Amino acid sequence: MVQQLERLELLIGKEGIETLKQKTILIVGVGGVGGYVAESLARCGIGKLILMDHDVVSLTNLNRQIIATYDSIGQYKTELMKQRIQQFSGTQVECINAFFNEDTALIDCDYVVDCIDTITSKMDIIKKCHDAKIPCISSLGMANRFDPSLLRYTTLDKTSYDPLAKAMRKMAKERNYRFKIEVVVSLEQAYKQNKLVNPDGKTYKEKYPPGSNSFVPASAGLLLGSIVVRNLLKKGN
Q: What DSSP assignment string belongs to 183-221?
């Protein structure tokens, strides 16, 4: 009888399949990167995914986010991702429609994937995971870039060319974080987006939103999913 995960089993064996079925992964941010993390992990038979994101789909998400369609505009990204996963996987999915901040309690899980772009929240996630001894990996800046072949898996202290990484390194130093922070980063020099899109915006990002495409965020999400699975299987052996 054909089994849903038999092609994956040919790569990782029955023990690998069972290992992944026992794992719970928290994904913070279910946008251009996080959506593909969730997709790839669910297709690998991860036992449970916890999806945290306060945002809803907007028209500008349609160029890159896996759950974004005309019909989904205005709906929670977490709920849409859950509905999508239930169409092809038995992975349990829990949705948390909230923003992660310093007061957010870290949920018990086996791995955390940070796919948000708010620096303070990213650093809060990283510190809470470190204190709880939960593996964590962060996606760095994927906007304003074109070449997915320049993505790398490394640690924050070895990054360059990334304004988000620079700000995170500064905050890590200010907060006296003396531990390695695993990241996926692009080596590509970011394109400078200087076009004023929204004159009434309250922040620089609202006034000058970053450029984006489908291939860099998607590739980053798939790379993150691969890293999580490979690391879980290493620990399971």
A: EEEE-SPPP-------TT-SSHHHHSPPP--SHHHHHHH
- Mind listing the pLDDT tens digit for each residue in 1-13? 569 999 999 999 9
C-alpha distances out from residue 138 to 1, 109, 225, Å: 39, 16, 11
Positive or negative, the Cα torsion across 220, 226, 229, 234?
A: negative
Contacts of 50 (CB under 8 A, 6+ apart): 24, 25, 26, 27, 93, 94, 96, 107, 109
pLDDT tens figures, 104-139: 888 899 999 999 999 999 999 999 999 999 999 999
Which of these, 131, 122, 133, lies nearest to 28 by C-alpha position?
122
* R_g of the chain, CA atoms, integer Å: 18
C-beta of residue 116 within 8 angstroms of C-beta of residue 100: yes
- DSSP 8-state class, residue 137: E
Residue ranges and CATH numbers for the domains of the chain are 6-236 (3.40.50.720)
Interior angle at CA 229, CA 228 and CA 230, nearest 5: 95
Q: Evaluate whether 29 touches 52 at the Cβ level (below 8 Å).
A: yes
Between CA 131 and CA 97 the distance in angstroms is: 24
Contact yes or no for 116/98 (Cβ under 8 A): no
